[in-house]
Amino acid sequence: MALNPFSSGTRLRDMIRAIRASKTAAEERAVVRRECAAIRTAISERGQEELRHRNMAKLMFIHMLGYPTHFGQMECLKLIAAAGYPEKRIGYLGLMLLLDERQEVLMLVTNSLKQDLNHSNPFIVGLALCALGNICSAEMARDLAPEVEKLLRSRDVNTKKKAALCSVRIVRKVPDLAENFMGLAASLLKEKHHGVLISAVQLCTELCKASKDALEYLRKNCIEGLVRILRDVSNSSYAPEYDVAGISDPFLHIRVLKLMRMLGQGDADCSEYMNDILAQVATKTESNKNAGNAILYECVETIMGIEATSGLRVLAINILGRFLSNRDNNIRYVALNILMRAITVDTQAVQRHRVTILECVKDADASIRKRALELVFLLVNDTNVKPLTKELVDYLDVADPDFKEDLTAKICSITEKFSQEKLWYLDQMLKVLSLAGNHVKDDVWHALIVVISNASELQGYAVRSLYTALQAYSEQGSLLRVAVWCIGEYGEMLVNNVGMLEAEPPITVTESDAVDAVELGFNRYSADVTTRSMCLVALLKLSSRFPSMSERIKQIVAQNKENMVLELQQRSIEFGSIIQRHQSIRSSLLERMPVLDEAAYLVKRASATQATIPAYKPASGVTPGDLKLPNGVAKPAAAPLVDLLDLSSDDAPVTSTSATTTPNDFLQDLLGIGGTNLSTAGVPSASTDILMDLLSIGPSPSQNGLLDLISPAQAEQKPVSAVPQVVSLVPEPMDLLGSLSSSASSSAGTKSSTVVPQAADLLDGLSASTSVSGLDDACPSITAFQSATLKIVFDLRKQLGKPQETTIHATFTNLTSTTYTDFIFQAAVPKFIQLRLDPASGNVVPASGKGSVTQGFNVTNSQHGQKPLAMRIRMSYKVNGEDRLEQGLVSNFPPGL
């Protein structure tokens, strides 16, 4: 009688053969369905016990194919409860494969596991330990931990090894049980069998992660044993069962080194005890095999992670230097990764391998190039900046296009951060613009224009160098923009060779040549509105500098009168009108741009950069907290104008309003380098209107997305129109007492008088305990900001009958031993909050908390009860003449404000 191919008696291999013979997914599903139906029938029928293990093997294969097999879970428990080893083996295998710790059925197997852990047959004990180590839950770990502890004392090495690995799972699930395994784990380190040793080391590692008490215990009791293990395995003779490519048990090496790193981290005594054996491993291990390199890598990680001696760290860094010369890309990459961390520990030792690291920047592997470039950036300092920059710039010419953007960004950051001479800075930036101008970001060439504007002695050299470079590299967009701007501003210097340097060769450039250069850029970049707009402005300025070329310039400008781009069409018509009809005002209208405040621009740029960089990634440029002004720029006399971003992303940004427009705003508008576009209020003069219209090539002022703070220089100007979201550092004169209600009691015989803005300390002395009529003292004080250097406390008071208004009295305390001068407090709030700042009581914060500066301000929450009060604050001050900036977010206001 033929056997049904899908009956429960079918062998596993026959089922696999049938499944693999299926030509379509539907056929496979049909085979699996029929087989599962046959297994269900066998489960429900009695007398099929001898085929139970065969059915479980089929279910495991079906489970691995991704089909549901939950109906066979109880069969696993029945097989585990069987007396024979073959049934238990299949049962435990099915248990580990078909179930996990989240299954409630698993609770039913606890008793079987307990019995098998106490079984006389070591193979059955091994099965139970293996299953427990893979799927035990926290409840099972607590119930069966005593049995596992007993097995750790077993004489059988395989049982001890499996018990140690099972203990790792138990400690992970229930860290409170770590103290039960500390002594046993330490005693296992005295074993000779490598399998037991590696399991014991893994258990010790898990104990260190789970409990601080276990970490201290193992530091006292295991260091000597670990050093002995490492010495024995390093000096042992050839053992075929442990040998890997001529290295004796590299797996045990690596596990022991990892545990030593955990024990030695932050502990000088343990680290000192390890120094000798680490030096021995680092010097004796061969590096021509991959196994040896793995041990050396882990040894270096351990040396850099513990409190090692300086000589040992130098040895570790030299090993990494050898790794950099290895042909294996993986080894070089991990070496670069460790060196990036090692540079904070021993910079000088890493500097010795600078040449090798530079060679890695030119590697064919993109990952190695990028990592090496980041390391080079960290290696740069004031002494080696010039040779390193030269190497990077030279490589820029032959670098892959995909790598040029990263390389260009790092070179620009290096030159801006470390340049002490403006001439060197200009030369390097000129090379970068010439070789990779299309990869340079806008803020880089904006900064270059600001530097040229400030370097009056180098303006002639700059315009001549840019003109020469433009003849050879006209396809570089950023180079063209900077050159066109400089030709428009300093065209007469280009033609007349004004400001020649000693080693600079003279060049002959006519007025027609200068116009040709601008026209070339105008025609080449027909799709770039910004470049064409800059070219039009430069041509307009050249019409004033070169009167003989006015007619030709007028013809070039007129070509865009019918341009489809409205911006270019408008400029063309207006500029043509100025050249033809407004010659009387043309010379004054087209004067050179006023010198920009370089320090203010650097701070604003750093603030914008910091706002866009994730917190885990440090900014590579200038940061507000530690400002280093390059190119010999003097520190600003007053706190610069900075922008604070809006606090809530769901509110529309607001536009600030200024009573006047300074000359610096024109270049900001021209280049789009400012974080804001200030709109004028009131009725400005006709000439100002024309100039703003001529030079405005950026987005309209209404598109501004930042919340601005009025600069201290504007503090004495009365705002023409009040925008609720704009913070005014000096309010209306009568508003100095705005925090007092109209019913505030005054002394008898006192008459009201006009309050002038100079009365900056009228509110000084209003402490938290001062009783003022109309205010409610129910709100608690909060610590709004505290760092190692400064503490700010807000004393909050509510207006009676006005729940949306809050009066805040801020107290600024200096926590250092140095006095702060020129102290300025600035704040910004979301759109739905109105803020009015009163003048501070002073601008000098005494040292060591021996005095304080106070300042009051009022906030009105228009969405009181719906949105909480929030505020971003920024403090600027000087310490021994050096500018400092601190900022923070105040979000711990009490509810109900």
The end-to-end distance, rounded to whole angstroms, is: 88 Å
The major sheet is characterized as: 6 strands, antiparallel
The count of β-strands is 15
The proportion of residues forming helix, as a percent range, comes to 40-55%
**How many helices in DSSP terms?**
35
Q: By helix and strand content, what is the structural category? A: alpha+beta
Our Rg estimate from Cα atoms comes to 38 Å
Low-pLDDT ranges:
1-8, 613-775
Coarse morphology: elongated
Q: In terms of quaternary structure, what is this?
A: single chain
Beta-strand percent range? 5-15%
User: What is the average of the pLDDT values?
Assistant: 78
Structural commentary:
The chain is of the alpha+beta class. Helix content is 52%, strand content 10%. The chain is built from 35 helices and 15 strands. Strands 7, 8, 9, 10, 12 and 13 form a 6-stranded antiparallel sheet that branches. The chain has a 3-stranded antiparallel sheet with strand order 11-14-15, with no helix packed on it. Helix 4 (73-81) packs antiparallel against helix 5 (85-98) and helix 22 packs parallel to helix 24. The longest helix has 20 residues, at 25-44. The chain is elongated. The N and C termini lie far apart (88 Å).
